[in-house]
Amino acid sequence: MSVMKRLSLIFRAKANKALDKAEDPRETLDYSYERQREMLMKVKRGVADVATSRKRLELQLQTLNQQADKLEAQSRQALAQGREDLAREALTRRSAIQQQQTDLAQQHAQLQAEEEKLTLASQRLQAKVDAFRTRKETIKATYTAAEAQTKIGEAFSGISEEMGDVGMAVQRAEDKTLAMQARAGAIDELLASGALDDASGTAKDDITVELERMSSSTDVELELARLKGEITGGAPVPQIEGNATGAAPATEAPAATPEKQGETT
Amino acid sequence: MIVRIMGEGQWTLGDEHVDVLNSLDAGLESAVEGGDQEAFNAALSDLLANVRALGSPLPDDTLAPSDAVLPAADSDLDDVRALLADSDEGLIPG
Question: What would the pLDDT profile of A140-199 be if each residue is shown by its tens digit?
Fold first, then answer.
């Protein structure tokens, strides 16, 4: 038998079985209505869960973007200081991060699609549950148990099919969200371990350390040159002092100014 | 006839389209039986596209069971096999 017919029969069999179990079909209506409301809550929770996971991915993407920008800045800085090896290392790391970004962006798109689907499913179910409630009250008010059986059939099968479909959609979304959370957790761990460097800036990566070391050793060299100049008493000394007084004469203490003037004259 | 696409909702189609759907469905069935994932994907997306194009969506508050139910667009062979093998305590809640 054809696929689409077989599937519809499977849904129908489920509905009929539930209906056959009840002695008074009118009781089935109330019971089913309760289950519909539970399913509705479940779908809405599902939408919220997917949204939470989506937001978490967005935060991670943001962190990765900052990290990629930082590595690019580092590679420029390293190149400016003539350290091509460091620049290469920074760019290599940035390319690893770019792969993560692509991966996360794909997952983000998937979650977004799932969220939209579930939101629509929740709207459809809400409309059907409302319609069912009205139908249920009419049937209970109008028909005897025997008459109700035939009146209930279609509405019940219709809502039961929707419940089955929505139930599976929620399940699928849950599975996807769980898989996504596991991966998001792994990325969080990676970020925390410093392998991708923490963008909060608390942990310094080795490229930063190296750049800082280079800049501090440059500072030391400059300082050394200055001290050497002072000791030899040659030309560098007045040059440095001349700069200092020239740059900020107003900030000099008034007492110090005559001294220096005396020195130079 | 009323057709449900799982995860999307229900469509109603005129009787004149039943033959088209049936022949496409036969292709889907042989893909499922032959375990041919590629043919399955093609047949399913063809079938779904026809339902969406030829049918008109039922209003959300309709409480009618479907004459035919089609797997969700992103299903693969295994999903459909599992659906078809669904027993009392199986995949479909309800």
Answer: 888 887 787 777 888 888 999 999 999 999 998 888 888 888 877 887 787 776 655 544
CA distance, residue A58 to nearest chain B CA (Å):
24
Tell me phi and psi for residue A225, to 5 degrees.
Answer: -60, -40
Residue B57's SS3 state is strand
Nearest by CB: B63 against A2, A120, A155: A155
Q: Tokens representing A61?
A: 């993407």
The three state secondary structure string of A163-174 is HHHHHHHHHHHH
Residue of A2, A120, A155 lying closest to B22 (CB–CB): A2
**pTM of the predicted protein model:** 0.74
Q: Which of A214, A196, A213 is nearest to A205 (CA)?
A: A196
Contacting residues of A for B93, CB less than 8 Å apart:
39, 163-164, 167-168, 171
Tell me the chain B residues in contact with residue A39 when contact means C-beta distances shorter than 8 Å.
Answer: 93
State how far residue B15 is from chain A, nearest Cα, in angstroms.
15
Count of pairs with CB atoms under 8 A, one residue in A, one in B: 113
Distance between CA atoms of A78 and A82, rounded to whole angstroms? 6
Q: Tell me, what DSSP letter sits at residue B86? A: -
